[in-house]
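From the methods appendix. Each design record in this collection lists the tokenized structure first, followed by the designed amino acid sequence. Records were kept in a plain field format so they could be parsed without special tools. The example shown here is representative of the layout used throughout.

RECORD:
FOLD TOKENS (295 positions):
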């Protein structure tokens, strides 16, 4: 669907593209068994098994095993070039694969449906990842701390909290971030843009997750259920904090007195008792608290 509209210069390219719909991956890596829909992707992948990384970025020094990955890195990180333009709406992308995903969204079709909850997806791989929210599977584990993730890219962003790497810098204030999404969200603090709007009441938000949270309040949905006691929550983070009450885990420790807490927000409140700091200021009054008169 949409293949003719996208257009391909050769029959082999079209065939490779069709396999993204069918899920067929006939080109297998002899080293690890991973499959690919086109032979060129397999060739690039094979080079990742070799520790040799002769292709080095002149701007930041990062090395790569294949010139394709170096070129992709330079476009993605340094030049900001977006050569792939959507014919339907004019939006530009750094990678052809991202354009392709975007183009299918114009068709409005989501052929891959979750058998457990009925949610539909544009791509089979997104369905596979979604299914993990039901099974609890998190295959990508951090070798530094053991924390696991649904998505590989979330693991990559997380690893930067250990390495300190922050490759995405704000052009307006110079603040750096470990992930592109965090930079994009931060930029809205300068532009005041709020692109995510509630269809029911019109309230707008700068973060998609904030809108999702808000909508759940309208419908009363609580999709995150505790396996221990059955209590349900609107947010996964709230469920995680609640689960620690069952396990007795208290990972957030006060540096001043050693007292431990199961939620970071409670630790922050506790620390303010030591420091006297009151960071939440009323916008109408220029000080952080009012002193009541004595009688």
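DESIGN:
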């Amino acid at each position: 669907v949409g293949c003719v509209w996208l257009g391909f210069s050769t029959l082999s390219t079209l065939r490779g593209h069709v396999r993204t719909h069918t899920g067929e991956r006939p080109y297998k890596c002899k080293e690890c068994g991973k499959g690919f829909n086109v032979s060129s992707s397999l060739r690039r992948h094979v080079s990742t098994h070799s520790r040799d990384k002769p292709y080095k970025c002149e701007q930041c020094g990062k090395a790569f095993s294949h010139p394709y990955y170096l070129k992709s890195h330079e476009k993605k990180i340094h030049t900001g070039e977006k050569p792939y333009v959507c014919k339907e709406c004019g939006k530009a992308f750094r990678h052809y694969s991202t354009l392709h995903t975007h183009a299918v969204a114009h068709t409005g079709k989501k052929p891959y449906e979750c058998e457990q909850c009925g949610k539909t997806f544009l791509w089979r791989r997104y369905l596979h990842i979604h299914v993990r929210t039901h099974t609890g599977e998190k295959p990508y584990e951090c070798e530094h701390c053991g924390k696991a993730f649904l998505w590989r890219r979330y693991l990559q962003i997380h690893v930067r909290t250990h390495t300190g790497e922050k490759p995405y810098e704000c052009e307006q204030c110079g603040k750096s971030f470990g992930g592109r999404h965090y930079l994009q969200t931060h930029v809205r603090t300068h532009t005041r843009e709020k692109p995510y709007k509630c269809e029911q009441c019109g309230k707008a938000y700068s973060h998609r997750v904030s809108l999702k949270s808000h909508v759940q309040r309208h419908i009363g949905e609580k999709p995150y259920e505790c396996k221990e006691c059955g209590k349900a929550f609107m947010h996964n983070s709230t469920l995680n904090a609640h689960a620690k009450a069952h396990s007795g885990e208290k990972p957030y420790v006060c540096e001043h007195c050693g007292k431990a807490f199961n939620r970071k927000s409670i630790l922050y409140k506790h620390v303010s008792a030591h420091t006297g700091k009151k960071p939440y200021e009323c916008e109408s009054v220029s000080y952080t608290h009012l002193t009541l008169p004595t009688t």
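APPENDIX NOTE: The two ends are 77 Å apart (CA to CA).
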